[in-house]
Specification:
14 helices; 4 strands; mainly alpha; two-stranded antiparallel ribbon
Length: 395
């Protein structure tokens, strides 16, 4: 996940500047109205005091007049000074904010350069003498790269290292699980993580030659809940991964205890709004073949599986996967590779039955109707002949 620059501060600053500008305009308008009012009052008082009539003002009138004018224009001067001071402070604040934003941009650019340099040095740690470094070193390097938010690129690198057996499966699954759990991960990142998981299923369980047969690596988050909020392609790849992992080893090995992990994942996937019925078809196939006899499913889960799987039909390519699962459940050898996750298509299900099935059902109904009509016609003819013969005998 590449670090993105936040545009919130500049936007807020622009809004703040607009508010302050409008406030300044309002204050100037009020000040203008106030000055105009004071000048009008002063002129009115001068007229009322007969200043222009030629009569000499008394000492008290002159003192009162000058006191009023002094106070009035003193207030106006004070307001003008305060407004000018506020404008000066506002300009100073804007300049300080601009300097702060520039410093932040410079800090981000410096951080990005340092991150690029760090990533380059980390990638140098992955290889040594024309080959891959020891697993511990590679695991630390790729984990650091993903911690630095290397984005989908780091997950692609993880996939290449995993395919070359340069990183252990435990670390790879842990990193994928972290990506799937990360609420800030992008759609590209979660999609890449799901694809890597689907393409490297052979590394999730021990081979026949492995001394230790009691382990199975799988993202723990998928056994806890299903990520229904992720993109369709990501969830589709996860369905493919949980299906393909079963075919890597024979049913007898899974029945030793590891079968609970993929089954729990598929049960969680029943809540998927688009692919829940796909998971139901897989579980239904396994139930009908007796492959889940060592796994306890609740009555509610079993009922949901039967209901959901009966309302849809799989597409042609998904039917081949279900057929392979049926062969696998019977104990017969089957191919371990299925259609790659990137070519799974828009959906493994169809809400309508295939056209050929509809045509055959229509033909069957038509033939049945014709047969029934033919039997009715023959029966009617026989009854008429019997009635005619009875009438002839009576006559």
């Amino acid at each position: 996940m590449v670090a993105q620059r936040s545009t919130r501060e500049p936007v807020d600053e622009v809004g703040s500047q607009g508010t302050r500008s409008r406030l300044t305009t309002v204050i100037w308008t009020i000040l203008t109205v106030l000055v105009t009012f004071l000048i009008g009052v002063a002129v009115l008082l001068l007229l009322k005091s007969n200043l222009f009539a030629g009569d000499k003002l008394s000492a008290d009138d002159t003192k009162s007049l000058w006191t009023f004018l002094g106070v009035a224009f003193g207030i106006v001067g004070t307001l003008i000074g305060a407004l000018l001071t506020a404008q000066h402070n506002h300009r100073t604040h804007i300049l300080a904010e601009q300097v702060k934003i520039q410093e932040q941009e410079l800090a981000r650019e410096t951080e990005e350069r340092l991150k690029v340099d760090t990533v380059a040095k980390i990638l140098e740690l992955v290889t040594v003498d024309g080959g891959y470094a020891p697993r511990a070193r590679v695991a630390g390097a790729i984990a650091t790269l993903m911690q630095l938010h290397g984005g989908a690129v780091s997950i692609r690198i993880l996939g290449e290292l995993w395919a070359a057996d340069a990183v252990d499966s435990s670390t790879a699954v842990w990193l994928i699980d972290r990506t799937l759990r990360d609420s800030s991960a992008t759609e590209d990142e979660t999609g890449q993580a799901a694809d890597v998981l689907a393409l490297q299923v052979k590394h999730l369980v021990p081979s026949h030659q492995d001394i230790h047969q009691e382990w199975c690596h799988w993202p723990k988050s998928l056994t806890e809940s299903w990520p229904s909020d992720m993109a369709f392609g990501t969830r589709n790849a996860l369905i493919a991964a949980v299906t393909q992992i079963l075919l890597v080893r024979e049913l007898a090995w899974w029945e030793l205890g590891a079968l609970r992990t993929p089954v729990r994942t598929m049960v969680n996937a029943l809540h998927d709004p688009e692919l829940g019925k796909c998971s139901a078809l897989i579980l239904k196939t396994l139930l009908d073949s007796g492959a889940l006899k060592t796994v306890r499913l609740s009555e509610d889960d079993t009922a949901r599986i039967n209901t959901m799987s009966s309302s849809v039909e799989p597409t042609a390519w998904f039917r081949t996967i279900l057929d392979k699962l049926g062969i696998w459940a019977s104990g017969q050898p089957t191919e371990k590779s299925i259609v790659p996750a990137s070519t799974l298509g828009p959906s493994p299900l169809t809400s309508k039955k295939p056209r050929s099935t509809e045509d055959s059902e229509l033909a069957a109904r038509t033939a049945l109707t014709s047969a029934l009509e033919g039997k009715t016609t023959k029966s009617s003819r026989r009854k008429r002949k019997a009635r005619g013969a009875s009438a002839a005998k009576r006559g």
